[in-house]
Structures are given as C-alpha cells and as structure tokens.
Amino acid sequence: MALIRRKKAPERENQGTSDVNITDDDNKKNKQPLPTKQKKKVWTCLDNCCWFIGCICVTWWLLLFSYNAMPASFPQFVTEAITGPWPDPPGVKVAKEGLFAKHPVVFVPGIVTGGLELWEGHNCTEGLFRKRLWGGTFGEVYKRPLCWAEHMSLDNETGMDPAGVRVRPVTGLVAADYFAAGYFVWAVLIANLARIGYEEKNMYMASYDWRLSFQNTEVRDQTLSRMKSNIELMVVTSGGKKAVIIPHSMGVLYFLHFMKWVEAPAPMGGGGGSDWCAKHIKAVMNIGGPFLGVPKSVPGLLSAEVRDIAVLRAVAPGVLDKDLFRFQMMLQHVMKMTRTWDATMSMLPKGGDTIWGGLDWSPEEDYCLNKRNQNHNDTKNLDRHETKHLVSQEKNANYGRIISFGQEAADAAASELNRIDFRDAIKGRTVANCSCQEVWTEYHEMGFGGIDAAVKYKVYTADEVVELLEFVAPKMMARGSAHYSYGIADNLDDPKYDHYKYWSNPLETKLPIAPDMEIYTLYGVGIPTERAYVYKLSHSAECTIPFQIDTSADRVDSCLRGGVFTADGDETVPALSAGFMCAKAWRGKTRFNPSGIKTYIREYNHAPPATFLEGRGTQSGAHVDIMGNFALIEDILRVAAGATGEELGGDIIYSDILKWSDKINLSL
C-alpha cells in the first residue's frame, strides 16, 4: 500500500504540473496585444488625379461601347425625332436632278491636314519606315516624343531636310481624307462627288509637304511639276474639259503660288506659258482662304500659343506657370519645331496697316461679335439670309493693334502711348544660364535688354508685327523673307515681282489672263475669330518663352475675352482676310485682275449641330468642319458638273465684308 501511495503521489504532482502548464499556455494564447490607434490615411492630390482620370476613362469606354453597340441608324433616328427628317446628301440631291461628273477635280489641302510619312530616320525610329509621323493615330508622339519632334523639324538654316532624315507627304486621296481616325477633312466631299460618278481617275489630291516653303516643295519633291502634269493629264483624258481646283486653308496660298509658277519661264517657273491657266482651269473654289494672312499666326510664332493654349493656362495658372508638368518645356519644344516650318510664315498678315488698320482705326472697328443669332441645324427649313449682328455701344476694339503689351496699351488713345523704339536695342546672351538652355530658342540670344525693349514699344500694328518677329527671331525671318513678302505692290509691272517670293501674296501679283475662268471664295462666318492679342511678360522670362497672352485681360460687353480680341470669321480666318480680294481687289478689271476674271463670294452662316449625335453638323461654318457643310458641298458639285457662278445665284453674303472693304483705301 505504501508503494502504491508513492506511485500515485508523483502522478498527482505530474498532473498538477500539467494543469499549471496548460493554464500558462492558455493565458499566453488568450493574451491579446492592446489595441493601437490606427493612423488615418491622408487623401492626396495624386489620389484625386487618379480617381479623376479613372472616371474619365471608364465614362469614355462606356460611351464608346454604347456607340458601337447601338444600331447604325440610331443617331439619325434621334436627330430626326428632334429636328425632322434629314435631307438627302448633296450628292444624292444633285444626282436626282440628272447632274453627273463632268470636269476633273483637284484638291489642294492646307497646313497640317495632309499626312507625312517617314522614309529615312535615326536609330530611334526603328520600325517606322513609311509609317505616318503626322496624321492617323499620332501614336509616335506619345511613345517617343523627342524623337518625333526631331524628325518633324526641318533644318534651322536651310529650311530643308536635316541630315539623315527624310519625311515625305503621303500620296493619293488617303493623304488628307481624314486627319485622324474619325476626323474627316476631305472624306465627305469625296464621298458626295463619288455619288455623281467621280473616282480616282478624275479626282486628284495634290498633297505636298506643308512644312516647306512653297518654292522648296518644287526644289525638293517637284510637287508643283507633278500637279501641273496631273492637271494636264486629266484635262486630256476628260476630253478637254477644264479642271475645277478646290484649295483649302493654306492650300489657297499654295495654289496662288502655283498659278504664277506654272506660267513663269524655267528654271524658276514651270514654263507653261501665259495662257496655261486659261487652257486648263475652269474655276478655283477657295475654301477658308487666308488670302491676306491670319493674325492667329503671330502668337503661334511669337510665343507658340493661340487662344486655346491661353485658356488652358488661365484654367490652371499656378500649375502651368510653375511648370509642374513641364508645360513650358513642351511649348519650347513646339516653338523650336514649328519655327523650322517655313510655310507658317506664308500666313502672316499681308498688306500692313492699309488692310488691317493702324493704331486708331481698323476696317471692323465698329463691329463686335458678342452674340449672334445662330440657327441650329434645322435641316428641314433653313433661311440662309437670316442673321443679326450686335454692335458694341461701349468701346470700339482697336483691332489694328495686333499685339498690345498690357490692356492699358490696348485701350489707350494713340496720342497717349509713350513708346520706346525697340529696333536699336542692344541684345546679348545675358538671359539664360546653362540650365535654361535645355531647349534652344532664339530668345536665349536676346538678353534682358532686347526683351525689355520689345515690351516697352507697347503696341504693334500689322506692319510692325513683321519687324517684331524679325527682332525676336532673326534666323527664322531671314529664311521667311527669302520666300514670302507681306507688302502691297506700287507697280505690278516692276520686274522684281517676277520673283517667287511675291507669288503667294495677292497684293503683289496679278491673276492670270484667263477671262473665262472663275474664282470663288467660300468661307464660314458667325464664329468669334482671333483678330488681336493682349500680351504680358512671362513670370520666368529668364528661362522660358518671355512673352505670353495675358488671359486676365477682359472687357465687359466687348470682343476682348481672355486676352484675345475676336471679330467675325470661321474661327481661324477672319472674314476680312477670306473675303476682301473677291469683294474689292479682284472685283471687275483691276490692276490685280487685268483680264476681269469673275469672282464670287459664298458665305456660310455657322449653325451648330442640333444634337451631339449629329457629329460636327451639316451647316457648320468652322474652318475645317465646313468641309462637311451640305450647302458648300452642293455648290462645289454643281460647278464640277458644269454650272457657273451666275447659275449658282451669284454672291451670298451675311457679314459686313462689303462695308469693311470700302473702308480700305487701296489703289486698284
């Protein structure tokens, strides 16, 4: 018994020990750490941006999915429910009348709307042979932007190809039918011409490298010679029927140059003789033609901006001025690239103060396009003569002052302006240090003295704008002055005007001797169009572009908004530039039109689309969207089918172009 007791005692001890151990383990397991106070996540600006971009992308893809999923007839169904039945497309309408293809048609695209493709490049362009660098998807801009900008630039000294780079225009109708996917330029017009029997054998897209000066397109690519040969071939194969030429935008100036080139003797010209145009051209139907230039080209060359960029800067002034997203650096790259494109200088204002006005007057001085009755796209019943202008009773806009430094200078009387001449100011490389010259521009060679002098001159008229650009960008303007001129000829018989630099200026050259030919100017009106600008000195002028549009400059009940004065036009070309030559300088027999070629003005009053499903609309007067305007397309189809300007109904005018033209004192 004692032995048994001895054995049980250790068992109890072990059991007790085990109980104790279990209890300790349980206590350890049950013991939880004390709760700690969690830090609240801070919502940053980056989170906001990510959410914002995400919402935009999701919305975009949902809309895209919905658009692709809906029946093709749905947009038309909705629009017809709102505005009534759609009219027949112009091609269908004139085909029902029995009209058909008669005269061969030549399209001359404008600046930036023609595609450019790569034929030779540096190592960074591997895999891009014959791929579009301009037009299409613009994919290479995002993938390799600096490489793209390098290959889109021309040589800063010669204005031709840089070493080891060959970028050439795309050929055929596809060169400019669409600028980018879904964004038509010539496609709608081509489709309507096809409805009356046209095809590639009697339609020709005269594509060219729109970066080059007009004469250099012939020197490098023989583009003018190709255009001449193709027109001659189409006239022969159509049984002797003359061609209808349809230039758009800068293509209008390019074809003016061509008409002088083709008749001029070789080697400077095409050697076609003085009667070539009379033999081969029935009509020239100019669309949105900047005959006398566009003020919009001035800020593009001066500060690489226009109203849209200025508005963007106004929306986020702190962000863009501080260069948080390297916006200023991007503008410098854009300036470096575009200042090598000599063609841009062809669109500087021509005719000086005589045409565009001086310090205290302008042709449009009593007109302000604050509001305008814009007929929506009521495709059922449109009164094309219905329009209303509102004249500002507050203060006339000084449109003649194309550039003003400060709103005070823009508004001041001419006698109150205290201007200091900038022409003899001392320049010097005192502005930029090495860190500032990541992107070279000619501003880095001006110095503080040059920049300050340009600002203190305060206001610049059309004559002085050219001098300002010669002061701030002498290398660019040296190339430009070799190819373009911006004056008014005193004596058109002077042999100096036989030089090609004058051929694209209608005020320094004569129309061909072709009394049976017709010239039309077709353009939109009713849209505020850039006419003059208020500038200021940039906050960081020592490292960036020193001048920028002053978006704080506004005037209630006037045409000044965000530093930009606007007048009537098509959003790009003022009506004054598009209409003056056919309204006055070429009307009847004049020294600019010695054979009395008949001229017609056809204005298209802008009407925005009734619904977003209608796309860019069928009655738009905007500079590019007008290419889908049914009334314009119908006019072109009728002329191509044999109609004359008189049969179309002569002039159709909504703007005050005749009144403005009368104010211009030009010797005819």
TrEMBL record:
Record field: transmembrane: 49-67
Q: Any idea where this protein resides?
A: Membrane
On whether Transmembrane is a keyword of this UniProt record, the answer is yes
Q: What's the catalysed reaction?
A: a glycerophospholipid + a 1,2-diacyl-sn-glycerol = a monoacylglycerophospholipid + a triacyl-sn-glycerol
Keyword Cell inner membrane belongs to the record = no
The molecular function terms in GO held by this entry are: O-acyltransferase activity; phospholipid:diacylglycerol acyltransferase activity
Q: What protein does this entry describe?
A: phospholipid:diacylglycerol acyltransferase
